[in-house]
Amino acid sequence: MKIFYAVQATGNGHIARAKELVPFLQRYGQVDVFLSGNNSNLKVNLPVKYQSNGVSLFYGNRGGLDYWKMAKELSLFNIIKEAKALPVDQYDLVINDFESITSLACKIKQVPSIGFGHQASFKSKLTPRPIKKDWMGELILNNYATASKYIGLHFDQYDEFIYSPIVKEQVLLASPKNLGHISVYLSHYSDEVVASYLHQLPDQLFHLFSKKEKTINQRGNIIYMPIDNSLFTESMINATGVITGAGFETPAEALYLNKKLLCLPIKGQYEQLCNAAALNNFGVPILASLNTDFKRHVETWLNGAHPTQLHLGLSTQAIVEKLMEAAASLEVQEEEFNQYELDHLSLKFR
């Protein structure tokens, strides 16, 4: 079997998930990865055969998206050109982790595909949303990367096609400890902005994961660390708590490890506001932004109860098996459609 696996690289979560998934997919055949986007900070150790700048998200320094840079990097002409050139029709199975060029290529070439990952879970109306829905956000979640069938991942099984998060083996095999530090990853803020707030708690040690730092070094109550998947995971395993955005993979692993978790959603990113609504149901405090009350919020958080621990309903292998079952059902549907077309033509020319 030849498998085409499209991976969105606008953030680290999609790549981290792909690293765990690919070895299981390779048991079924050859896997070729299409990496789309250019602002992930993780090293890509994947069988990448195709690559594109795609449609990338860029962040400012104070918690929001950099819309100007996003618009400047976007080229609709190149996206259409790349979609036409992408050889999705040469594969037995197309798996799409929220990647728009692959979605367009499958439409153009009439190739069935499976939408897989966290964003696929938003195809269900049962998946948590904020009290105030954003029609533009809903439009993007539902139409940015459409597919023939969906396998979603979320913190809980909100619908029949939604399964457990894919948790790294390093986390699954860990023996969590509390060594007293707090792991901090807030890529939508600059180091300087985050540090100015962390310094307000001089007796608390922080591990701040930075897009700028290349080596580990300590300044005051902050140990600056380069963004590295294994290094961050080790920090989180041994942390008192984790402060991060309202993404998916990091909060899921923090909840699985039974760590205290404090989330600051990226401003203007609707998916993160939806995640925040789900995390709130787990007892995770949500901060709209870094503000003058940050010190008080952190102290209250540290003195408060742990959130509800996340339990995995299915292993990664079992999720891949569900994915392959969905692929088999696509083949049956395609065969039934082709037979219908033949029968229809036969009737027409009688």
Defining traits:
13 strands, disordered C terminus, 12 helices, 350 residues, 38% helix, 17% strand, seven-stranded parallel beta sheet, six-stranded mixed beta sheet, alpha/beta
Could you characterize what this model shows?
The chain is of the alpha/beta class and 350 residues long. Strand 8, helix 7 and strand 9 form a beta-alpha-beta unit. The longest helix has 33 residues.
Helix and strand layout, with pairings?
Layout: E1 2-8, H1 12-25, E2 30-36, E3 48-52, H2 67-73, H3 76-85, E4 93-97, H4 100-109, E5 114-117, H5 135-143, E6 149-153, E7 162-163, H6 169-172, E8 182-185, H7 191-198, E9 206-210, E10 217-219, E11 222-226, H8 229-237, E12 241-244, H9 249-256, E13 260-263, H10 270-281, H11 294-303, H12 316-348
Parallel strand pairs: 1-2, 1-4, 2-3, 4-5, 5-6, 6-7, 8-9, 8-12, 9-11, 12-13
Antiparallel strand pairs: 10-11
Helix pairs in contact: 3-4
